[in-house]
Design a protein that fits this description.
The protein is α/β, with parallel strands linked by helices. Helix content is 39%, strand content 15%.
Length: 446
Protein backbone atom coordinates (compact mmCIF):
# COMPACT_ATOMS: atom_id res chain seq x y z
CA UNK A 1 0.00 0.00 0.00
CA UNK A 2 1.38 3.39 -1.01
CA UNK A 3 2.01 5.69 1.87
CA UNK A 4 0.17 9.06 1.70
CA UNK A 5 2.29 12.09 0.84
CA UNK A 6 2.21 14.58 3.67
CA UNK A 7 2.71 18.23 2.65
CA UNK A 8 3.85 20.53 5.42
CA UNK A 9 2.20 23.89 5.99
CA UNK A 10 5.43 25.69 5.06
CA UNK A 11 5.55 23.86 1.73
CA UNK A 12 1.91 24.65 1.12
CA UNK A 13 2.56 28.34 1.68
CA UNK A 14 5.18 28.27 -1.06
CA UNK A 15 3.00 26.46 -3.59
CA UNK A 16 -0.10 28.64 -3.25
CA UNK A 17 0.06 31.88 -5.26
CA UNK A 18 -0.20 34.93 -3.03
CA UNK A 19 -1.57 36.88 -5.97
CA UNK A 20 -4.40 34.38 -6.50
CA UNK A 21 -5.32 34.46 -2.82
CA UNK A 22 -5.36 38.25 -2.86
CA UNK A 23 -7.48 38.26 -6.00
CA UNK A 24 -9.99 35.85 -4.45
CA UNK A 25 -9.92 38.02 -1.30
CA UNK A 26 -8.83 35.16 0.89
CA UNK A 27 -5.96 37.47 1.79
CA UNK A 28 -5.78 41.24 2.14
CA UNK A 29 -3.47 44.06 1.19
CA UNK A 30 -2.51 46.74 3.68
CA UNK A 31 -1.21 50.19 2.77
CA UNK A 32 0.62 52.02 5.55
CA UNK A 33 0.69 55.80 5.10
CA UNK A 34 -2.23 57.36 3.20
CA UNK A 35 -0.77 60.59 1.87
CA UNK A 36 -0.16 61.70 -1.71
CA UNK A 37 1.37 58.30 -2.49
CA UNK A 38 -0.43 55.81 -0.28
CA UNK A 39 -4.04 56.84 -0.75
CA UNK A 40 -4.14 56.58 -4.58
CA UNK A 41 -2.41 53.18 -4.36
CA UNK A 42 -4.79 51.93 -1.67
CA UNK A 43 -7.89 53.02 -3.58
CA UNK A 44 -6.66 51.58 -6.87
CA UNK A 45 -5.88 48.23 -5.26
CA UNK A 46 -9.26 48.33 -3.50
CA UNK A 47 -10.98 48.18 -6.90
CA UNK A 48 -9.72 44.60 -7.25
CA UNK A 49 -8.58 43.42 -3.82
CA UNK A 50 -9.61 43.74 -0.17
CA UNK A 51 -7.53 46.55 1.37
CA UNK A 52 -6.74 47.93 4.81
CA UNK A 53 -5.60 51.54 4.69
CA UNK A 54 -3.65 52.66 7.77
CA UNK A 55 -2.66 56.19 8.71
CA UNK A 56 -1.69 57.35 12.21
CA UNK A 57 -3.39 60.72 11.65
CA UNK A 58 -6.90 60.07 12.95
CA UNK A 59 -8.24 63.33 11.51
CA UNK A 60 -7.14 62.27 8.01
CA UNK A 61 -8.64 58.82 8.52
CA UNK A 62 -11.97 60.35 9.55
CA UNK A 63 -12.05 62.38 6.34
CA UNK A 64 -11.23 59.37 4.19
CA UNK A 65 -14.01 57.39 5.84
CA UNK A 66 -16.33 60.13 4.54
CA UNK A 67 -14.91 59.85 1.03
CA UNK A 68 -12.73 62.96 1.27
CA UNK A 69 -9.09 63.09 0.20
CA UNK A 70 -7.24 65.31 2.73
CA UNK A 71 -4.65 66.11 0.05
CA UNK A 72 -7.33 67.35 -2.39
CA UNK A 73 -5.91 65.21 -5.19
CA UNK A 74 -8.77 62.72 -5.58
CA UNK A 75 -12.47 63.39 -5.95
CA UNK A 76 -15.27 61.59 -4.09
CA UNK A 77 -15.75 59.22 -7.04
CA UNK A 78 -12.38 57.60 -6.23
CA UNK A 79 -13.86 56.27 -2.99
CA UNK A 80 -16.85 54.66 -4.63
CA UNK A 81 -17.10 50.95 -5.38
CA UNK A 82 -13.92 50.03 -3.51
CA UNK A 83 -13.25 47.38 -0.85
CA UNK A 84 -11.25 49.28 1.74
CA UNK A 85 -11.17 49.67 5.51
CA UNK A 86 -9.63 52.92 6.76
CA UNK A 87 -8.04 52.73 10.20
CA UNK A 88 -5.51 54.34 12.52
CA UNK A 89 -5.03 51.19 14.61
CA UNK A 90 -1.86 49.19 13.74
CA UNK A 91 -3.53 46.08 15.20
CA UNK A 92 -5.68 45.95 12.08
CA UNK A 93 -2.57 45.12 10.05
CA UNK A 94 -2.79 41.58 11.38
CA UNK A 95 -5.72 41.02 9.01
CA UNK A 96 -3.46 41.64 6.00
CA UNK A 97 -0.86 39.48 4.26
CA UNK A 98 0.62 41.83 1.64
CA UNK A 99 1.88 45.03 3.27
CA UNK A 100 2.80 48.17 1.31
CA UNK A 101 4.71 50.86 3.20
CA UNK A 102 4.31 54.34 1.71
CA UNK A 103 5.14 56.68 4.58
CA UNK A 104 6.96 59.97 3.88
CA UNK A 105 10.75 60.11 3.95
CA UNK A 106 11.94 63.65 4.53
CA UNK A 107 15.08 65.31 5.89
CA UNK A 108 15.72 67.07 9.20
CA UNK A 109 16.97 70.61 9.80
CA UNK A 110 20.51 69.42 9.11
CA UNK A 111 19.45 67.92 5.76
CA UNK A 112 20.00 64.40 7.09
CA UNK A 113 17.50 61.66 6.09
CA UNK A 114 14.74 61.26 8.65
CA UNK A 115 13.90 57.56 8.74
CA UNK A 116 11.74 57.75 11.87
CA UNK A 117 8.37 57.30 10.07
CA UNK A 118 9.83 54.44 8.01
CA UNK A 119 11.22 52.66 11.06
CA UNK A 120 8.00 53.08 13.03
CA UNK A 121 5.98 51.73 10.12
CA UNK A 122 8.38 48.78 9.85
CA UNK A 123 7.90 48.05 13.55
CA UNK A 124 4.11 48.10 13.16
CA UNK A 125 4.26 45.77 10.17
CA UNK A 126 6.75 43.51 11.96
CA UNK A 127 4.37 43.06 14.88
CA UNK A 128 1.64 41.98 12.45
CA UNK A 129 3.83 39.81 10.20
CA UNK A 130 2.89 36.15 9.67
CA UNK A 131 4.39 33.28 7.75
CA UNK A 132 3.73 33.65 4.04
CA UNK A 133 3.37 37.46 4.21
CA UNK A 134 4.91 40.02 1.87
CA UNK A 135 6.26 43.48 2.70
CA UNK A 136 6.85 45.98 -0.11
CA UNK A 137 8.32 49.46 0.45
CA UNK A 138 7.40 52.41 -1.77
CA UNK A 139 8.99 55.22 0.25
CA UNK A 140 11.97 56.92 -1.39
CA UNK A 141 15.23 55.87 0.30
CA UNK A 142 18.93 55.49 -0.43
CA UNK A 143 20.19 52.21 -1.93
CA UNK A 144 20.39 49.44 0.72
CA UNK A 145 17.96 51.10 3.15
CA UNK A 146 15.21 48.49 2.68
CA UNK A 147 17.50 45.58 3.46
CA UNK A 148 19.85 47.22 5.97
CA UNK A 149 17.52 49.53 7.93
CA UNK A 150 13.99 48.16 7.51
CA UNK A 151 14.49 44.40 7.24
CA UNK A 152 16.21 44.02 10.65
CA UNK A 153 13.21 45.71 12.29
CA UNK A 154 10.78 43.36 10.55
CA UNK A 155 12.82 40.35 11.69
CA UNK A 156 13.24 41.60 15.27
CA UNK A 157 9.55 42.40 15.72
CA UNK A 158 8.18 39.26 14.06
CA UNK A 159 10.77 36.64 14.95
CA UNK A 160 10.44 35.43 11.35
CA UNK A 161 13.14 34.76 8.77
CA UNK A 162 13.33 36.37 5.36
CA UNK A 163 12.91 33.92 2.48
CA UNK A 164 11.56 30.94 4.37
CA UNK A 165 8.91 32.81 6.39
CA UNK A 166 8.19 36.05 4.52
CA UNK A 167 9.18 37.96 1.40
CA UNK A 168 10.47 41.49 0.88
CA UNK A 169 10.21 43.91 -2.04
CA UNK A 170 10.69 47.49 -3.14
CA UNK A 171 8.59 49.34 -5.70
CA UNK A 172 9.37 53.07 -5.84
CA UNK A 173 6.43 55.42 -6.07
CA UNK A 174 5.96 57.52 -9.19
CA UNK A 175 2.99 59.62 -8.19
CA UNK A 176 2.85 63.06 -9.85
CA UNK A 177 0.76 65.43 -7.67
CA UNK A 178 -1.50 67.70 -9.69
CA UNK A 179 -1.07 65.77 -12.96
CA UNK A 180 -4.41 64.46 -14.21
CA UNK A 181 -2.91 62.76 -17.27
CA UNK A 182 0.07 60.90 -15.78
CA UNK A 183 -1.85 58.99 -13.15
CA UNK A 184 -0.86 55.98 -11.05
CA UNK A 185 -2.02 53.30 -13.49
CA UNK A 186 -0.57 54.96 -16.61
CA UNK A 187 3.02 55.20 -15.34
CA UNK A 188 5.37 52.23 -15.74
CA UNK A 189 6.07 50.73 -12.29
CA UNK A 190 9.42 49.40 -11.14
CA UNK A 191 9.19 46.29 -8.95
CA UNK A 192 11.83 44.24 -7.16
CA UNK A 193 11.92 41.33 -4.75
CA UNK A 194 14.17 39.55 -2.26
CA UNK A 195 14.19 36.45 -4.50
CA UNK A 196 12.70 35.29 -7.79
CA UNK A 197 9.48 34.06 -6.20
CA UNK A 198 9.00 37.39 -4.44
CA UNK A 199 9.67 39.28 -7.66
CA UNK A 200 7.15 37.20 -9.60
CA UNK A 201 4.37 37.61 -7.04
CA UNK A 202 4.97 41.33 -6.50
CA UNK A 203 5.01 41.86 -10.27
CA UNK A 204 1.67 40.06 -10.60
CA UNK A 205 0.04 42.10 -7.84
CA UNK A 206 1.15 45.47 -9.21
CA UNK A 207 0.71 44.38 -12.79
CA UNK A 208 -2.98 43.79 -12.08
CA UNK A 209 -3.58 47.53 -11.57
CA UNK A 210 -0.81 49.23 -13.59
CA UNK A 211 -1.98 49.37 -17.20
CA UNK A 212 1.40 50.75 -18.32
CA UNK A 213 3.06 47.56 -17.10
CA UNK A 214 5.84 46.77 -14.65
CA UNK A 215 9.62 46.76 -14.98
CA UNK A 216 11.38 43.99 -13.05
CA UNK A 217 14.55 45.34 -11.48
CA UNK A 218 17.20 42.69 -10.83
CA UNK A 219 17.53 43.62 -7.14
CA UNK A 220 16.02 45.76 -4.42
CA UNK A 221 19.12 47.98 -4.38
CA UNK A 222 18.83 48.66 -8.11
CA UNK A 223 15.17 49.69 -7.67
CA UNK A 224 16.09 51.97 -4.74
CA UNK A 225 18.92 53.56 -6.70
CA UNK A 226 16.77 54.04 -9.80
CA UNK A 227 14.23 56.02 -7.80
CA UNK A 228 16.70 58.26 -6.03
CA UNK A 229 18.60 59.19 -9.21
CA UNK A 230 15.39 60.06 -11.09
CA UNK A 231 14.95 63.14 -8.92
CA UNK A 232 18.67 63.75 -8.45
CA UNK A 233 19.00 64.10 -12.23
CA UNK A 234 16.10 66.56 -12.35
CA UNK A 235 17.63 68.49 -9.45
CA UNK A 236 20.93 68.83 -11.29
CA UNK A 237 19.26 69.86 -14.54
CA UNK A 238 17.37 72.65 -12.78
CA UNK A 239 20.47 73.74 -10.86
CA UNK A 240 22.28 74.23 -14.18
CA UNK A 241 19.48 76.45 -15.47
CA UNK A 242 19.38 78.36 -12.17
CA UNK A 243 23.11 79.02 -12.37
CA UNK A 244 22.76 80.11 -15.98
CA UNK A 245 19.88 82.43 -15.06
CA UNK A 246 22.12 84.14 -12.47
CA UNK A 247 24.84 84.62 -15.08
CA UNK A 248 22.41 85.86 -17.72
CA UNK A 249 20.84 88.28 -15.25
CA UNK A 250 24.28 89.85 -14.68
CA UNK A 251 24.64 90.14 -18.45
CA UNK A 252 21.19 91.68 -18.85
CA UNK A 253 19.97 88.73 -20.93
CA UNK A 254 16.49 87.21 -20.71
CA UNK A 255 16.98 83.53 -19.79
CA UNK A 256 13.67 82.52 -21.38
CA UNK A 257 14.76 84.03 -24.70
CA UNK A 258 18.10 82.20 -24.50
CA UNK A 259 16.32 78.88 -23.95
CA UNK A 260 13.94 79.64 -26.80
CA UNK A 261 16.83 80.35 -29.15
CA UNK A 262 18.92 77.35 -28.04
CA UNK A 263 15.83 75.16 -28.38
CA UNK A 264 15.92 75.53 -32.14
CA UNK A 265 18.71 72.91 -32.15
CA UNK A 266 17.25 69.41 -32.42
CA UNK A 267 19.17 67.91 -29.48
CA UNK A 268 18.87 70.78 -27.00
CA UNK A 269 16.65 69.88 -24.04
CA UNK A 270 14.43 72.75 -22.89
CA UNK A 271 14.75 73.03 -19.13
CA UNK A 272 13.89 76.07 -17.03
CA UNK A 273 15.10 77.71 -13.80
CA UNK A 274 12.95 77.87 -10.70
CA UNK A 275 12.48 77.20 -7.01
CA UNK A 276 13.08 73.53 -6.22
CA UNK A 277 10.87 72.43 -3.34
CA UNK A 278 8.45 69.64 -2.62
CA UNK A 279 8.97 66.18 -1.20
CA UNK A 280 10.96 64.71 -4.09
CA UNK A 281 13.41 66.79 -6.11
CA UNK A 282 14.53 68.96 -3.19
CA UNK A 283 14.82 66.02 -0.77
CA UNK A 284 15.86 62.82 -2.56
CA UNK A 285 19.41 63.95 -3.48
CA UNK A 286 20.19 64.30 0.22
CA UNK A 287 19.47 60.59 0.66
CA UNK A 288 22.06 59.74 -1.97
CA UNK A 289 24.51 62.26 -0.48
CA UNK A 290 24.03 60.71 2.95
CA UNK A 291 24.75 57.18 1.75
CA UNK A 292 27.72 58.27 -0.34
CA UNK A 293 29.30 60.02 2.64
CA UNK A 294 28.79 56.89 4.75
CA UNK A 295 30.93 55.18 2.11
CA UNK A 296 33.56 57.97 2.32
CA UNK A 297 32.60 59.37 -1.07
CA UNK A 298 31.97 63.11 -1.43
CA UNK A 299 29.73 63.66 -4.50
CA UNK A 300 30.86 66.97 -5.95
CA UNK A 301 28.25 67.42 -8.66
CA UNK A 302 25.22 66.41 -6.57
CA UNK A 303 26.28 68.61 -3.64
CA UNK A 304 26.92 71.55 -5.95
CA UNK A 305 23.47 71.24 -7.50
CA UNK A 306 21.87 71.21 -4.07
CA UNK A 307 23.80 74.34 -3.00
CA UNK A 308 22.67 76.24 -6.06
CA UNK A 309 19.00 75.27 -5.76
CA UNK A 310 18.86 75.80 -2.00
CA UNK A 311 20.43 79.22 -2.50
CA UNK A 312 17.91 80.51 -5.04
CA UNK A 313 15.42 82.00 -2.52
CA UNK A 314 18.20 84.16 -1.03
CA UNK A 315 19.39 85.23 -4.48
CA UNK A 316 15.87 86.17 -5.64
CA UNK A 317 15.26 88.11 -2.42
CA UNK A 318 18.50 90.02 -2.88
CA UNK A 319 17.57 90.77 -6.49
CA UNK A 320 14.20 92.19 -5.44
CA UNK A 321 15.78 94.35 -2.73
CA UNK A 322 18.26 95.73 -5.27
CA UNK A 323 15.42 96.55 -7.66
CA UNK A 324 13.45 98.29 -4.90
CA UNK A 325 16.47 100.36 -3.92
CA UNK A 326 17.08 101.15 -7.57
CA UNK A 327 13.62 102.74 -7.65
CA UNK A 328 14.46 104.88 -4.65
CA UNK A 329 12.40 102.79 -2.23
CA UNK A 330 13.39 101.88 1.32
CA UNK A 331 12.93 98.08 1.60
CA UNK A 332 12.03 98.43 5.26
CA UNK A 333 9.02 100.52 4.25
CA UNK A 334 7.90 98.29 1.37
CA UNK A 335 5.02 95.83 1.12
CA UNK A 336 5.31 92.76 -1.10
CA UNK A 337 2.63 90.31 -2.21
CA UNK A 338 3.76 86.69 -2.57
CA UNK A 339 1.38 84.84 -4.89
CA UNK A 340 1.67 81.10 -4.31
CA UNK A 341 3.13 79.04 -1.47
CA UNK A 342 2.56 75.44 -2.58
CA UNK A 343 5.60 73.66 -3.98
CA UNK A 344 4.13 73.41 -7.51
CA UNK A 345 1.17 74.56 -9.55
CA UNK A 346 -2.40 73.42 -8.97
CA UNK A 347 -1.70 71.34 -5.85
CA UNK A 348 -2.31 72.00 -2.16
CA UNK A 349 0.97 70.40 -1.05
CA UNK A 350 3.13 72.85 0.92
CA UNK A 351 5.83 70.40 2.00
CA UNK A 352 9.37 71.79 1.67
CA UNK A 353 8.07 74.88 -0.08
CA UNK A 354 10.98 77.11 -1.07
CA UNK A 355 8.55 80.01 -1.27
CA UNK A 356 8.63 80.01 2.53
CA UNK A 357 12.40 80.45 2.39
CA UNK A 358 11.90 83.38 0.02
CA UNK A 359 9.39 84.96 2.44
CA UNK A 360 11.84 84.61 5.32
CA UNK A 361 14.67 86.09 3.25
CA UNK A 362 12.57 89.16 2.45
CA UNK A 363 11.59 89.51 6.09
CA UNK A 364 15.29 89.73 6.93
CA UNK A 365 15.22 93.07 5.11
CA UNK A 366 12.21 94.18 7.24
CA UNK A 367 9.91 93.94 4.21
CA UNK A 368 6.23 93.39 4.99
CA UNK A 369 5.19 90.26 3.09
CA UNK A 370 1.61 89.19 2.36
CA UNK A 371 1.10 85.59 1.20
CA UNK A 372 -1.87 84.28 -0.81
CA UNK A 373 -2.58 80.98 -2.51
CA UNK A 374 -5.92 79.65 -3.80
CA UNK A 375 -4.87 76.03 -3.20
CA UNK A 376 -3.07 76.12 0.15
CA UNK A 377 -4.78 75.59 3.49
CA UNK A 378 -4.39 78.61 5.79
CA UNK A 379 -4.37 76.32 8.80
CA UNK A 380 -1.69 74.03 7.37
CA UNK A 381 0.55 76.97 6.46
CA UNK A 382 0.14 78.43 9.95
CA UNK A 383 0.85 75.06 11.58
CA UNK A 384 3.77 74.09 9.38
CA UNK A 385 5.52 77.42 8.89
CA UNK A 386 4.06 79.78 11.51
CA UNK A 387 2.94 82.10 8.71
CA UNK A 388 -0.46 83.79 8.53
CA UNK A 389 -1.79 83.99 4.99
CA UNK A 390 -3.52 87.16 3.84
CA UNK A 391 -7.29 87.09 3.53
CA UNK A 392 -7.66 90.16 1.31
CA UNK A 393 -5.30 91.53 -1.33
CA UNK A 394 -4.76 95.28 -1.00
CA UNK A 395 -3.94 97.84 -3.71
CA UNK A 396 -0.69 99.33 -2.49
CA UNK A 397 2.04 96.75 -3.02
CA UNK A 398 5.53 97.89 -3.96
CA UNK A 399 6.17 94.52 -5.56
CA UNK A 400 4.34 91.33 -6.47
CA UNK A 401 6.16 88.01 -6.70
CA UNK A 402 4.32 85.28 -8.60
CA UNK A 403 6.05 82.13 -7.42
CA UNK A 404 3.75 79.33 -8.57
CA UNK A 405 2.09 78.85 -11.95
CA UNK A 406 -1.42 78.13 -10.69
CA UNK A 407 -4.15 78.15 -13.35
CA UNK A 408 -5.78 81.05 -11.52
CA UNK A 409 -2.63 83.13 -11.96
CA UNK A 410 -1.96 82.33 -15.62
CA UNK A 411 -5.09 84.19 -16.77
CA UNK A 412 -4.18 87.47 -15.03
CA UNK A 413 -3.27 90.47 -17.16
CA UNK A 414 -1.25 93.67 -16.71
CA UNK A 415 -4.38 95.55 -15.64
CA UNK A 416 -4.82 93.24 -12.65
CA UNK A 417 -1.31 93.95 -11.40
CA UNK A 418 -1.77 97.68 -12.02
CA UNK A 419 -4.79 97.61 -9.75
CA UNK A 420 -2.98 96.04 -6.78
CA UNK A 421 0.30 97.94 -6.89
CA UNK A 422 1.65 101.41 -6.31
CA UNK A 423 3.08 103.49 -9.11
CA UNK A 424 6.41 102.22 -10.43
CA UNK A 425 6.05 98.81 -8.77
CA UNK A 426 7.83 95.55 -9.58
CA UNK A 427 6.38 92.28 -10.87
CA UNK A 428 8.67 89.27 -10.40
CA UNK A 429 7.53 86.31 -12.48
CA UNK A 430 9.48 83.36 -11.08
CA UNK A 431 7.85 80.78 -13.35
CA UNK A 432 7.90 82.97 -16.48
CA UNK A 433 4.16 82.56 -17.11
CA UNK A 434 3.48 86.05 -18.48
CA UNK A 435 4.36 87.58 -21.82
CA UNK A 436 2.85 91.06 -21.59
CA UNK A 437 4.96 94.20 -21.53
CA UNK A 438 3.68 96.47 -18.73
CA UNK A 439 4.26 100.22 -18.91
CA UNK A 440 3.38 101.24 -15.36
CA UNK A 441 5.54 98.72 -13.48
CA UNK A 442 8.82 96.86 -13.98
CA UNK A 443 8.66 93.23 -15.08
CA UNK A 444 11.37 90.67 -14.24
CA UNK A 445 11.45 86.93 -14.69
CA UNK A 446 13.90 84.27 -13.60
Amino acid sequence: MTKPIIISQDTLLKTVSVFEELLSKKKKISVIGLGYVGLPIALEFAKHFSVIGLDINTARVDLMKKGIDPSNELGPEAFQGVDIKFTSDPEDLKEANFHIVSVPTDIDEHKVPNLTPLKKASASVGKALKKGDYVVYESTVYPSCTEEDCLPILVAESGLKLGTDFKLGYSPERIVPGDKEKTLTTILKIVSGSDQEALDEIAKVYGHIITAGVYRAPSIKVAEAAKVIENTQRDLNISLMNELSIIFDKLGIDTAEVIKAAGTKWNFIKLYPGLVGGHCIGVDPYYLLHKARELSVEPQVIASGRRINDGMPAWIAKKLVQMLIGKGKNPGQCKVLMMGITFKENVSDIRNSKVVDLVHELMQFSILVHVVDPHASHNEVAHEYKLAMTENISSDYDAVVVTVGHSEYRVLDAKYFNNITKKDAILMDIKGIYSFEPDSFSYWRL
